[in-house]
Design a protein that fits this description.
Layout lengths: L13 H18 L2 H18 L3 H14 L1
Length: 69
């Protein structure tokens, strides 16, 4: 468990990032549990900060990359 102190984003594919975001959105909307939507928003915010891309542009980027695969 000591190696779990840091999670690197480099190890996650763009399609996996998009899938997580979509799953959180779907689950939040269909269960009416706001925590899923809050987590999705936090996830997007942190990823966009790390990538230095505005949030809306980041989602568009992930969608384009996932379609290219």
């Amino acid at each position: 468990m000591n190696n779990f102190d840091k999670i690197t984003i480099q190890e996650m594919s763009k399609s996996d990032m998009l899938l997580i975001i979509q799953a959180l959105e779907y689950t939040g909307q269909n269960t009416k549990i706001d925590d899923f939507l809050t987590l999705k928003d936090s996830f997007i915010k942190e990823l966009s900060i790390l990538s230095e891309i505005p949030e809306k542009d980041f989602i568009d980027y992930l969608q384009r990359e996932a379609q290219a695969l």
